[in-house]
Amino acid sequence: MRRVSLRLVTALAACCLASFAAAQGAGGALPSWRDGDAKSRIVEFVKAVTDAKGKDYVDSRDRIAVFDNDGTLWAEQPMYFQFLFMLDQVKAAAPRHPEWKDNAAFQALAAQDKAALAKLGQKPVLELLGQANSGMTVAEYDQAIRKWLGSAKHPKFQRPYTELTYLPMQELLAYLRANGFKTFIVSGGSAEFMRPWAEKAYGIPPEQIVGSQQEVKFEMKDGKPVLTRGASFAFIDDGPGKPVGIYRNIGKRPIAAFGNSDGDLQMLQVTTAGEGRRLALIVHHDDAVREFAYDRESHIGKLDQALDAAPASHWIVVSMKNDWKKVFAFEK
Amino acid sequence: MRRVSLRLVTALAACCLASFAAAQGAGGALPSWRDGDAKSRIVEFVKAVTDAKGKDYVDSRDRIAVFDNDGTLWAEQPMYFQFLFMLDQVKAAAPRHPEWKDNAAFQALAAQDKAALAKLGQKPVLELLGQANSGMTVAEYDQAIRKWLGSAKHPKFQRPYTELTYLPMQELLAYLRANGFKTFIVSGGSAEFMRPWAEKAYGIPPEQIVGSQQEVKFEMKDGKPVLTRGASFAFIDDGPGKPVGIYRNIGKRPIAAFGNSDGDLQMLQVTTAGEGRRLALIVHHDDAVREFAYDRESHIGKLDQALDAAPASHWIVVSMKNDWKKVFAFEK
Prior knowledge:
The structure is a homodimer.
Chain A: E1 2-4, H1 6-27, H2 37-50, E2 64-67, H3 81-93, H4 104-110, H5 114-120, H6 122-133, H7 138-151, H8 167-178, E3 182-190, H9 191-202, E4 209-221, E5 224-235, H10 241-249, E6 256-259, H11 265-272, E7 279-284, H12 305-313, E8 316-319, H13 320-323
Parallel strand pairs in A: 2-3, 2-6, 3-4, 6-7, 7-8
Antiparallel strand pairs in A: 4-5
């Protein structure tokens, strides 16, 4: 023991508060995860890539972790939440678009016909949304999203959609960041639908959200520079599009990837095809009581090929029912 | 004074080393900048937005700074360095493309005819590059870039291109980051051309580089997932494209923007049109001795409209000749 200034210690301590909080979080990591194979494989992976003396060590700059959003970080049933927002937007715009009466995507969306929507695929539905908000500035669109999220409620849980994030996944995000990872969302939905709430919900800032992209255009409007929305989509960040979105927006191969459906298959493949130790994980929706149970036959979040590929690829399949003590933070 | 454990102090100090180094850097900030209007306006801006008690305070999450690359962070004469790389790539691919003989962009590039290239614009030249590397995997392309950068030398300075970064701008990047800013490159060039060296040169990681985008496609090749390059460009991140690139990849309006040409005009406009205190800066190339002197009449990095807009928009115009003590780190 030697005598040193308390003031110095206080200054040092204040400066480090954030890091210490993170380190403590890692100590009692993943409290909503039951002990078992999934949890222990996650923890082993994180230990391996952060052990500076180990053979699997990865520099913190390369600790890139990518997360699907719908069905991986928050719920996606009875329909992608963005589709429900779109439905309201499309309904509001319908009087201005009499031609939609003969549009198959409009009919399916208006009837909430999941089978028809699944058959059509994402593209015509996204095109419809594109037409509905075409001409809006990005600021106006952002306001429409915030307004909807502030009032709409989930039909089963009767809560705002932003409360339907998975507590164990929030813990996982925080645990990875506490261990030097940079966490990204790579979603089939559009980035602007996630940006208003993802930082608060997940600790992921807007610049770390990759998603599908509607065309936007720079214009001068009343002497002010604005971005207005076009009608078509420039990029669909789903399935084989996800590795492309990762290449474009991140520019590094992730060392960890988290998904729940066949839309994440290629993202998981690219992640685990890299050299060195890798982690891939699939959230399996098998809890009809606390959430929903669906996989191979589902029209939303279909999990079939990726489930078949998991064992040979050494991807962790998480049972929501067995591996998670709690699904949502609001549970008793 | 109270007695506390030296070990605690040591641990705290080690943990804070990075932050302290940054804070020290801010103390003697911008050593290669001469005292004057440009330097003092930069420092005043940074003080204003980081003063938690001031009216101009900006939360660190919103301290987004965007930098053009060519002509702003490194040199761009006698021709964009990526074009010189492309020229070598196109030359190598020419025997496989006899149809290029009648292509105006190929002729201009092969003759290094800057006037013709300027008249054609970026698009046909980028298309030619697209064809030249089409079918390569992104890993192969990355290797080609690294190989070229490792051997090619600038015709005037006879040094590797990666040494032609501007020392005062490197200091500015570090100074902003030391004050809680997140720094991004938003370039008309393609991200993959900057990613191999920008982290070392500027401290900007691959995921914070926004650029023009060539098509890439996910494929399974010999049972392995790869991304291969298509022939066309999906997005040109220049002029009115820059605010679009910023919206897509960052999702926040920057509070500070740095450019040098009319290709940065809309990025500066969007940045300074935001509410609250903003900073926009133009690097004016007026130093024919240490670098190059060009502006309104130049075919590369033309600065005309943005120079006219600067005074009324309160954008700082930096004279490389007068405001910078040194241009390059290698200068005596």
